[in-house]
Amino acid sequence: MKLFKTISSFFLFSLHVFYGCNNQDTPPIPSFPPEDTSSKPDLVIGFDHFFDGEEFALNAFYLTKNQDSVQITEHKYIVSNVVLHNSTDGTELKLDSPYFLVKVPLDGNSDELLIDGKVHGLEEGVFDRIEFLIGLDSATNFAPEGGPKLFADEGMFWEWNTGYKFYVAEGRYYSKDLPFPSVGTVAHIGDQVNLINLSFDLSGRGSLILSNNETARINLRVDVDQLYFNPNLIDMSNSDFWQAMGGIPASTFRQNYSTEYWKLAGIINP
After folding, report:
1. Which of 216, 220, 200 has its CA nearest to residue 48?
2. pLDDT digits (tens, 9 = 90+) for 95-141
3. 173 φ, ψ to 5°?
4. Is residue 36 part of a domain?
5. For residue 270, is the peptide bond before it cis, meaning its omega torsion is within 30 degrees of 0?
6. Does 215 reside within a domain?
7. Does some domain include residue 178?
8. Would you say residue 248 lies in a domain?
9. Is 209 helix (H, G, I), strand (E, B) or coil?
10. Which of 64, 84, 200, 242 has the fewest CB atoms within 10 Å of its CB?
């Protein structure tokens, strides 16, 4: 009899636990928004480099307007703070993560900025002007030490000075008047005084049209030969220009690449 009561009590207790657990409110199943399979607009900015009207090539020999024989073995620069404008309605589109490095490759004269719409926050629209910096704004250029460095593998951060090199052209100068066949030349241009803002009117080319799931393109022409003469005619026999990393030599080069150095070559809309 005691055994029967014990089994009955256990059975009733088990039923209570079972139904009690199953009568509890079922927690809501979290809902997730459907995956966004659409694509933002993408933009490519192409930089085609030339020297005296011919396709520029690293390690080639060129004569400057001063008849100096020069060879450029490395040519690169930082592009940042890209902004697209629509002057009609006042729309201004600033890129997210807007830091890029343009570098002339060993096997060609062109480089491209591949601007992914989702990564950089592009939106549909019509834009009649583009502007960007050659270099970095002061907050980025003088970021606290210890943080990650932009373009660390490209040596764009000065180890002996504060900040970044905005523009780099390295090579050699050849002259029969030298006591040796050639001398190495370095133009490392940085510091906020040498920051330049470039702006290009796109309206004469039909404006830039950004559309979802499509890629538009802006082509820019870069005339590297103007580094040596416009507006300042550079005499490479002057040793001050062999190591241009500050002062008057750096600002002289910066003046030359901030005038007719860059030109809008075309727009290709989807």
Report:
1. 220
2. 888 899 999 999 999 999 999 999 999 999 999 999 999 999 999 99
3. -115, 130
4. no
5. no
6. yes
7. yes
8. yes
9. strand
10. 242
Q: Report how far residue 169's alpha carbon sits from residue 191's, in angstroms, rounded to the nearest whole number.
A: 16
Domain count, the chain: 1
Query: Mean pLDDT over residues 42-57, rounded?
Result: 97
User: CA dist 58 to 63, 179, 224, 254, Å?
Assistant: 14, 25, 11, 20
Domain that holds residue 185: 42-268
Non-local (6+) Cβ contacts of 103 within 8 A are: 75, 76, 111, 154
Strands 182-190 vs 125-127: parallel, antiparallel or unpaired: unpaired
Q: Which residue type is seen at 146? A: G
Q: Is the dihedral of CA 137, 141, 142, 144 positive or negative?
A: positive
- What is the Cα–Cα distance from 232 to 252, expressed in whole angstroms? 7
Over residues 201-241, the pLDDT tens digits come to 999 998 999 999 999 999 999 999 999 999 999 999 999 99
113, amino acid identity: L
pTM: 0.84
